[in-house]
Write a structure and sequence with these properties.
3 helices, 5 strands, Beta Polymerase, domain 2, single chain, alpha+beta
């Protein structure tokens, strides 16, 4: 998968590239993906892992060029669930960020 080649880590999951990241490197990973054809922001989702006491943010991107869906996952602790905005990369993400 192109996204996994670009980033150099991750795995294929259900026909999609799945990349785990920490919040410090997430912006650079998403920026690199966008610069290399993954320029359609699909959605931002959040999973509340109550039993693990953490949240999982998942950024979903699509590449029309590569016909590939990539998910970038960031784990955030429940006691400090903050994340930098990706608004500068995808202006439309602001709505999703406000809701989460």
């Amino acid at each position: 998968m192109k996204a996994l080649e670009l980033i150099g880590k991750g795995e294929e999951m259900h026909g999609r590239a799945y990349i785990k990241s920490d919040k410090e490197e997430a912006s650079s990973i998403i920026k690199k993906l966008k610069e290399n054809g993954f320029d359609h922001f699909v959605m931002l989702s959040c999973v509340d892992w109550i039993d693990k006491n953490e949240f999982e943010l998942v950024y979903h991107l699509w590449s029309y060029e590569h016909k590939e869906h990539v998910m970038v996952s960031i784990i955030l602790p429940r006691d400090n669930p903050s994340m930098s905005s990706m608004h500068e990369l995808f202006p439309q993400i602001e709505t999703y960020e406000r809701e989460i």
